[in-house]
Design a protein that fits this description.
The strands form four sheets. The chain has a seven-stranded mixed sheet. It has a five-stranded parallel sheet with strand order 9-2-1-10-16, with helices on one face. It has about 375 residues and is of the alpha/beta class. It has helices at about 10-25, 65-70, 100-105, 110-120, 130-155, 195-200, 210-215, 230-235, 315-330, 335-340, 345-360, and strands at about 1-10, 30, 45, 50, 60, 85, 90-95, 185, 205, 220-225, 245-255, 265, 275-280, 290-300, 310, 330-335. The protein is globular, with a radius of gyration of 22 Å. The protein folds into two domains: about 1-80 and about 185-240 and about 310-360, NAD(P)-binding Rossmann-like Domain (Rossmann fold); about 95-165, no CATH class. The protein contains eleven helices and 16 strands. It binds flavin-adenine dinucleotide (FAD) and uridine-5'-diphosphate (UDP). Flavin-adenine dinucleotide binds near residues 213, 337, 344 and 349.
C-alpha cells in the first residue's frame, strides 16, 4: 500500500495532521519509535490516578478555535495551575503576585508592592541576558530566591548565559491571583490526553516501536511529515542542535496526599530536582495512594530524549541552515517542537498543525 503521507511522530502535531489529512481522504500512516502514542502528552491510568508520564501538562490557551477543537474530542476539567516554590524549606506562591510579595516583603496593597519592586529593580539601558531581564523585572531578592538557582538547574548554565525571552513567560501581577497562566481557557483532559490522541487517530494506520531511520525503506509514501529532530533527519550535517533532556523519577506512595498541590518547584540548589508533581491533583482525586514524580533536568547528548530546544543565537543559526535545506526539499515537511526547533505549548502546537494543514490541503 502506498500512503500519501508518512507522519513520523504520534505526538500532538502528528496526530492533528493525521486527523485533518484523513478527513480530506488522504491515505496516512503514523509511526512512532516509542511504545505508545501521544509523544510527550501521553498519560496512563495507574489505579485511578492519571499519570502525566513526561511531566505536568496543563492545557491553556486564549485561542477559542483551538479550545473548541480539543473540546470537540474530549472533556476538560476546570483545573487551574497554581504552583508553589519551595526555597530552602519556605514556600512561596507563583507566579509572582501579591501573595508572593507579601511573603517576601510584607507588602499588603498593590501600591506598596509596586513601590517596593521599583526600589528592588535594577535599571539597564539594554537587556543582554536572562539575569539582567529578571533583575530589571523583579529585582535582586526575588531573582536570588526564586529564579537564579531554579533556572541554572533547569538549563544547566547560569542565567547570564541564557536568552532573556525565557523568563518573559512568567507573569508578574499586582493582584492576589496564583493562576500561573494568563490565558482565557485552562484545564486538563478529564480522562487524560491519551484519549485525545486516540480520538484524533481513530481509524488511522499506526505503527509503534517503529523508528523512521531504520524503517524508511520499508514503507511506500509520497511525502513525509516529520516531527522528530530536524538535525537528526539531515544526519547532523551542520552539527547537532542543543537541547535539554529530562529524567523523571516516579514514587508510588502509601499516603493519601503527599504535598497538597499538583506542582511544587524546588527553587534552590539544596535539591537536585526542579519540581515534584503529584498527579492525582490534576483530577481532584484524594488518595488512598498517590504517585509523585521528581523532575530532573539533564544535559542532552546524542541518543538521549530531547525535550527543550535551546534557542540561543548559536543554535538558532544552525537551525536556519537546516531550515533552508528543508525549504528546498519537496519530500519532507517539518513540524512540532523538534521539527521546528521551538518551545511550543500544546495550543501553539495545534495552531501550527492547523496552519500547515491549510497550506498543504490542496496539494
Ligand atoms: P512530541 O510530543 O515530542 O512528539 C514527537 C513524537 O515523534 C514522539 O512521540 C517521538 O517518539 C516521535 N519520533 C521522534 N523521532 C522519531 C523517529 N525517528 N521515528 C519515529 N518516531 C519518532 N504544553 C502545554 O501546553 N502545557 C504544559 O503544561 C506543558 N508542559 C510541558 C512539560 C514538559 C516537561 C515538556 C517537555 C513539554 C510541555 N509542554 C506543555 C509542551 C507539549 O509537550 C508540546 O506542545 C507537545 O507535546 C508537542 O507535540 P509534538 O507532536 O510537537 O512533539
Ligand atoms: N522559572 C524560575 N522559577 C520558577 C519557575 C520558572 O526561575 O519557579 C523560570 C525558568 O528560567 C524557566 C522559565 O522561568 O525556564 C519558564 O518557566 P515555565 O514554568 O514556563 O517553564 P516550563 O513549564 O516550560 O518548565
Amino acid at each position: 500500500m502506498k500512503y500519501d503521507y508518512l507522519i513520523v511522530g504520534s505526538g500532538l502535531f502528528g496526530a492533528v495532521m493525521a486527523h485533518e489529512l484523513t478527513k480530506i481522504n488522504k491515505k496516512v500512516l503514523v509511526i512512532d519509535k516509542r511504545e505508545h502514542l501521544g509523544g510527550n502528552i501521553y498519560t496512563y491510568n495507574k489505579e485511578g490516578i492519571i499519570v502525566h508520564k513526561y511531566g505536568a501538562h496543563i492545557f491553556h490557551t486564549s485561542n477559542k478555535k483551538v479550545w473548541d477543537y480539543v473540546n470537540g474530542f474530549v472533556n476538560f476539567n476546570n483545573f487551574i495551575n497554581c504552583p508553589l516554590a519551595n526555597y530552602k524549606g519556605t514556600l512561596y506562591n507563583l507566579p509572582f503576585n501579591m501573595y508572593t510579595f507579601y511573603q517576601l516583603f510584607k507588602t499588603k496593597t498593590p501600591q506598596e508592592a509596586r513601590e517596593k519592586l521599583e526600589k528592588e529593580k535594577v535599571k539597564y539601558t539594554t537587556i543582554n541576558n536572562l539575569e539582567e531581564q529578571a533583575l530589571s523585572l523583579v529585582g535582586k531578592e526575588i531573582y536570588e530566591k526564586l529564579i537564579k538557582d531554579y533556572t541554572t538547574k533547569q538549563w544547566g548554565t547560569a542565567p547570564i548565559n541564557l536568552p532573556s525571552f525565557i523568563i518573559k513567560r512568567l507573569p508578574i501581577r499586582f493582584v492576589y491571583d496564583n493562576n500561573y497562566f494568563n490565558d482565557i481557557y485552562q484545564g486538563i483532559a478529564t480522562n487524560g490526553y491519551t484519549e485525545l490522541i486516540e480520538k484524533l487517530l481513530e481509524g488511522i494506520d499506526t505503527k509503534l516501536n517503529y523508528d523512521f531511520f531504520t524503517n524508511k525503506n520499508n514503507i511506500e509514501y509520497d511525502k513525509i511529515i516529520f516531527t522528530g529532530q530536524i538535525d537528526e533527519y539531515y544526519d547532523y550535517k551542520f552539527g547537532p542542535l542543543s537541547y535539554r533532556s529530562l529524567r523523571f523519577e516516579d514514587e508510588y506512595l502509601d499516603v493519601a496526599d503527599f504535598q497538597g498541590n499538583a506542582v511544587i518547584n524546588y527553587a534552590s540548589n539544596q535539591e537536585p530536582f526542579t519540581r515534584i508533581i503529584e498527579h492525582q491533583h490534576f483530577n481532584f482525586r484524594r488518595g488512598p495512594k498517590t504517585l509523585i514524580t521528581k523532575e530532573y533536568s539533564e544535559s542532552w547528548t546524542l541518543g538521549k530524549e530531547a525535550y527543550y530546544p535551546i534557542n540561543d543565537e548559536k543554535n538558532n543559526n544552525i537551525y536556519q541552515k537546516y531550515l533552508s535545506l528543508a525549504q528546498k526539499d519537496n519530500k519532507v515537511i517539518f513540524g512540532g517542537r523538534l521539527g521546528s526547533f521551538a518551545y511550543l505549548d500544546m495550543d501553539k502546537t495545534i495552531e501550527k498543525a492547523l496552519e500547515l494543514f491549510e497550506r498543504i490541503k490542496d496539494e
